[in-house]
Specification:
By secondary structure, the protein is of the alpha/beta class. The protein has 15 helices and 20 strands. 39% of the residues lie in helices and 17% in strands. The structure holds 1,4-dihydronicotinamide adenine dinucleotide (NAI) and magnesium ion (MG). 1,4-dihydronicotinamide adenine dinucleotide binds next to helix 8, helix 9 and helix 12.
Length: 487
Amino acid sequence: MPKVNTLNFNTDWQYAEAPESSDHVQLESRYGHFINGKFVAPANGRYFKTINPANEAKLADIASGSAADVDKAVRAAKKGYKTWSRTPAKERAKYVYRIARMLQERSREFAVIESMDGGKPIRESKNIDIPLAAAHFFYYAGWADKLDYAFPNRRASSIGVAGQIIPWNFPLLMAAWKIAPAIATGNTVVLKPAETTPLTALMLAKVIQESGLPDGVVNIITGAGKTGSAIVNHPGIQKIAFTGSTEVGKIIQKAIAGTNKRYTLELGGKAANIIFEDAAIDQAVEGIINGIFFNQGHVCCAGSRLFIQESVADLVIRKLKDRMETLIVGDPLDKNTDIGAINSKDQLDKIKYYLKIGVNEGAEMYQPSCRIPQKGYWCRPTLFLNCAQSHRIVQEEIFGPVLAVQTFRTVDEGIEKANNTPYGLSGGVWTDKGSKIFKVSSKLRAGVIWANTYNKFDPSSPFGGYKESGMGREGGLHGLMPYLELN
Ligand code: NAI
Ligand code: MG
């Protein structure tokens, strides 16, 4: 008998510890753009609100960036570049280290605000997002004065102003992925966080201000797609780094075709998580859960297509359903929560649309019996069984806690099915045999492959995709290259 989840979100007794409180975090009621080391009001005086998706309450008003604001920020970044690019590398490194340490010191506050603004469980923001963001600053600080070792016999120089546009699924972490390598290598930055999750980027702006980083090296402009587009099209920018949807990635590619702007694109995914019959099944089940339900499935590299070898399929699916019964959906600030709030109403609508499509396509839908709160945006963890390769729920990125399940018989069939996707960002292989890991991972057309684990990240490891998942790599030594001219 599966364990039935009887937890009720609105009573206090269930908490092993009290939930994190928002009382000790200090939010301002209104935030301007961060330009040339100062917070400034938007040129047109317009603001939009960011809300908490777990209760729909407004958190703050955020400056809406116009082309005039972007222009101001690019000018500041250009001016900042004149001195920053000539600052000795070991001096630059000191600032980047300082930012890393300050993030660590304030990690609790960052974690609470990340969970409030975006809906992710506090356990994840506290243990993964914020520490990893700090780790990226530490890692790239280390490279700043060692570029001669990174690229022997070549001369590495910075390129100029980088325009950086990031999504809402890992707000602070994506800001760190973008800013740390750019400034460590002597470039300056105009970054735009996503419109539903701007708060931790603005807190990072405060940290940067307090770190004493020279004015204009990092500028942060808030706004939605139009603001992003103004960054992409600004002639003063030498490089675009974008993480987000494949759709917007294509718009950006078209917009900069014919200019000499460089670009890296980290786009969508529909990763295969492949379970072979010789895998440690209980561990694989944990890996499947983590692969798709981590961060509500709002993960570009999520293991959103599950392939199980036929001989163990019934066993794996039974264990998976049992495990799903134990998942707790609810308050992102509660340490016991496994699945937090869906990031926005738009994203929830998109997920619901795919749930309907899946049912209409003839797949069998399974959801555990967990309760979900009344207010806010929520989705139960969902399995679709008996999927076909042609189903839209198998081919398209849903970006929610929804897993499409298929089976296979032979290793080659598993590989072929896994590669049958327009995407190529990541994948997972679960088997007891090292030789199978090598064979399968070398044949999967995906940038990152995990073996007997999933969704593990480290700043020293490059990340990026093939096909419609994007181009270029971020992280590791490879992540320096987009920000350097190598001669
Ligand atoms: P999006 O791609 O529109 O947003 C990502 C960032 O790009 C945001 O900062 C946004 O303001 C900005 N942006 C939007 N339009 C732009 C434009 N024309 N030029 C420059 N910047 C622009 O993603 P959205 O609409 O939030 O989500 C839609 C779907 O995209 C999701 O359901 C998911 O499937 C996918 N997505 C994938 C991500 C990934 O990491 N692979 C991240 C976010 C979304
Ligand atoms: Mg928000």
